[in-house]
Amino acid sequence: MSAEKSFVRKPQTYNWQGPLSTAGICVLGSLSTGQSVTRNLYRAGARKVNLVNVDLSEKESGYSSSNKSEFCQTIDAEWTIANIEGFVQEAEIVIDTLSDWQQKLTLSDICMDSEKVLIHSGITGFRFQIYTMIPGRSACLRCALPVAGIDQVPLSPTGPPAIDAVIELVDAWQSLEAIKYLAKIGIVQGNELFKFDCLSGEFEVIRGLDAKLDCPDCGRKIGRLKRSS
């Protein structure tokens, strides 16, 4: 009787440090929401990360001056279209840790127009969503959010502020999406939005968020982003 053969799958090895070390990454939001993203990226090998703090109330309260990130360059900037366009155009990928929903929509418009990948997140209490928007492949936020069941974007932050544990969970997910995209490992669909409720444990994936031909924002970018999947 022949001996039964055993097969051991060798672990895959990925080289993400190289692509990360040269890629320009822009994290937009505040020091309190973007710190763990920059830490994760730095420890993975990223060396060209800008954390742009547009929450100037942190600066006024003294938070900004005493909590500069050791993992990236931190910049205090007033929220203006010209300012944000400048930061976006200098980056290869943009990570959204903003708390203002109107700013999120504007950032989506800017990234789509500049053909820059945007890793969006939205947090309400213990619930959050993650969406990687790839111009030419993905629906813009204005098209994607209604399909995801978010028909009316609030004009101001709603509900209780997110606790650090939720923020760090979101930051970790966004960091992984950035690493996968820049290193070209794993799968970054570009047409899926992930929703998670930390209290109930419910997880939902909204699929089919492709660019819409009749949208003047995401529709006109179809086919213009010449990047392999």
Set down the secondary structure blueprint.
Blueprint: H1 17-22, E1 25-29, H2 31-44, E2 49-53, H3 56-61, H4 63-66, E3 73-76, H5 81-90, E4 93-96, H6 101-114, E5 117-124, E6 127-133, H7 141-147, H8 164-183, E7 193-197, E8 203-206
Parallel strand pairs: 1-2, 1-4, 2-3, 4-5
Antiparallel strand pairs: 5-6, 6-7, 7-8
Helix pairs in contact: 2-8, 5-6
Structural notes for this entry:
There is one protein chain. The chain is α/β, with parallel strands linked by helices and 229 residues long. The protein has a single domain, classed as NAD(P)-binding Rossmann-like Domain (Rossmann fold). It contains eight helices and eight strands; from the N terminus they run αβαβααβαβαββααββ. The protein has helices at 17-22, 31-44, 56-61, 63-66, 81-90, 101-114, 141-147, 164-183; strands spanning 25-29, 49-53, 73-76, 93-96, 117-124, 127-133, 193-197, 203-206. Strands 3-2-1-4-5-6-7-8 form an eight-stranded mixed β-sheet, with helices on both faces. Strand 5 (117-124) and strand 6 form a beta hairpin. Helix 5 (81-90) packs across helix 6 (101-114).
